[in-house]
Design goal:
Elements lengths: L3 E2 L6 E4 L6 H5 L5 E6 L1 H14 L6 E6 L6 H14 L3 E6 L1 H13 L4 E5 L11 E5 L5 E6 L6 E5 H5 L3 H24 L15 E2 L1 H26 L5 H21 L3 H9 L9 H15 L4 H14 L16 H8 L15 H19 L1
Parallel strand pairs: 1-10, 2-9, 3-4, 3-5, 5-6, 6-9
Antiparallel strand pairs: 7-8
This protein binds zinc ion (ZN).
Catalytic activity: glycerol + NAD(+) = dihydroxyacetone + NADH + H(+)
Keywords: Metal-binding, NAD, Oxidoreductase, Zinc
Pfam family, one: Fe-ADH
């Protein structure tokens, strides 16, 4: 039996215009700030953040960041930290800015604050980054000893981001409970646990509580949140889904673990014709996982109905995949050694995965085609 592990951001703040309290929420961390911002995050967050600093004795360096979380970009940010005596690193934007900020803070031993400006993935709350080579190819997952010191989600900013990001974030969140359920059942490690030696990093009950709430919130509030976002409105269901996509799904996956759904995403990324975002692939991967598990019909239909209702893909065509011959290559990649799909009881072969993906696609077409 593994030892259990549960870890999370030290502080999570969410609400409309909460960035007006940025300084109040982070002043305990230091007084010299480096903001690593995507171009759009710089435009939307800086005025609010600056207002929060009025009358304070602090310095703020805003670095507009256009690149990927690559070795070279991280080096560049580390130099700014050392040259200017920066005390707090802030990442504002999507996955790349967030991952660069986390890596910079880790290497320079500084606290890190995360401001996601889209809710499309789990990046904000997790204790790991995806790192790329300078030529843009994937290098490694970098696991940190702790999660971010503070995460601040301004609902007003997310309500004005494209709705597809929110929907994709719901897809990423859809996998969380079902993947964690497999990991808990077979005593597999959580996502963070995968970086630890053999007998550590098991799924705690606290993690499962978050994962279950994650799925419940999607079913209850997903459609209303999507509609609110399409109309740039902040409503209670919209707020529930922001928390679901960012915290429940992020902390849930970090501590709950991965299984088939994320391996399906990793496999699909080798297809040139793929047009779907990360979370959209994870949603299709979740349906595929339920087929592999021979899940009860009601559960499968509940998940498929949810996907159809909010606009997540139930078919290959909806992900841009027209040539089913290529799908076997994706199935092989998804079953590569070290993939989380191997946590499934009895394991899964590429042929079995291929069959399950084709079945998911056929069911999707049959139900909604
Ligand atoms: Zn994910």
């Amino acid at each position: 039996m593994r030892t259990k592990l549960f870890r999370a951001p030290l502080k999570y703040v969410q609400g409309e215009n909460c960035l007006l309290k940025f300084h109040d929420e982070t002043c305990d961390l230091g007084s010299k700030f480096l903001f690593i911002c995507s171009r759009s995050a710089h435009r939307t967050t800086r005025p609010l953040i600056e207002e929060s600093f009025e009358g304070t004795k602090t310095t703020r360096h805003y670095e507009v960041f256009g690149g990927k979380s690559s070795v070279g970009e991280i080096e560049k940010m580390r130099k700014i930290v050392r040259d200017e005596g920066i005390e707090v690193i802030v990442g504002a934007g999507g996955g790349s800015a967030i991952d660069t900020a986390k890596a910079t803070a880790h290497y320079e031993h500084k606290p890190v604050v995360i401001i996601p400006t889209v809710c499309a993935t789990d990046a904000a709350c997790t204790g790991l980054s995806v790192i790329y080579n300078d030529d843009g190819t994937f290098l490694q997952y970098l696991f940190y000893p702790k999660n971010p010191d503070c995460v601040m989600v301004d609902s007003g900013i997310i309500a004005n981001a494209p709705v597809r990001f929110l929907i994709s974030g719901m897809g990423d969140a859809l996998g969380t409970y079902f993947e964690a359920r497999v990991c808990e059942a077979v005593d597999a490690p959580s996502l963070e646990g995968m970086a630890l030696p053999e007998d550590r990093g098991g799924v705690a009950s606290a993690s499962m509580a978050l994962c279950e709430r994650c799925y419940d919130n999607l079913l209850e509030y997903g459609l209303q949140a999507k509609t609110a976002c399409e109309n740039h409105c902040v409503t209670i269901p919209f707020e529930k889904i922001l928390e679901t996509n960012t915290y429940l799904s992020g902390v849930g996956a970090d501590n709950g673990g991965l299984a088939v759904a994320h391996s399906v995403y990793n496999g699909l990324t080798i297809l040139d014709e793929l047009t779907a975002m990360h979370g959209e692939c994870v949603a299709f991967g979740t349906i595929t996982q339920l087929i592999l598990e021979a899940a009860p019909r009601e559960e499968l239909e509940e998940v498929m109905n949810f996907c159809h209702e909010v606009g997540l893909p139930c078919t290959l065509a909806e992900m841009g995949i027209s040539d089913k011959d290529h799908l076997m290559q994706a199935a092989e990649k998804a079953c590569a050694p070290g993939e989380s799909i191997h946590f499934m009881p009895g394991d899964v072969t590429p042929q079995q995965l291929y069959a399950a993906m084709l079945t998911a696609d056929a069911l999707g077409n049959q139900y909604y085609g």
